[in-house]
Design brief:
single chain, alpha+beta
Length: 114
């Protein structure tokens, strides 16, 4: 981070990711300015949602894992893969069979009533 002036992240306002990113950066250098598109009115006006973002990526040859067929985001690293959005936001909807990358389909979704 030596010489950095900005911290940019794509965390949405739904979770705590943006807070964690920004608090960690501030702890290292309180002078950093944050660029957070999901809090920028101009960005929000241009990109109404996932369809607009996918169209922009396609028009600019930016490779992304999300497709209109599988409209969820994927975040993968050495330790885990997480998915978010679309049908996955509904807790009564099980994951599609092709979503598993680091694990295997456990053979069916079991729902518990609490």
């Amino acid at each position: 981070m030596e010489g950095a002036k900005y911290l940019a992240h794509g965390a949405t306002g739904k979770g705590n990711d943006q807070v964690r990113f920004e608090m960690c950066a501030i702890a290292l250098d309180a002078s950093l300015k944050t660029i957070a598109p999901w809090r920028d009115p101009e960005f929000l006006e241009k990109f109404k949602g996932r369809v607009d973002l996918l169209a922009y990526a396609a028009a600019n040859n930016i490779p992304v894992d999300a497709t209109p067929k599988a409209p969820y985001s994927l975040d993968a690293n050495l330790y885990h893969t997480s998915y978010e959005s679309g049908m996955l936001e509904n807790p009564t909807t099980g994951p599609p069979k092709d979503i598993f990358r680091m694990t295997v389909d456990p053979g069916g979704t079991v729902y518990l009533t609490v």
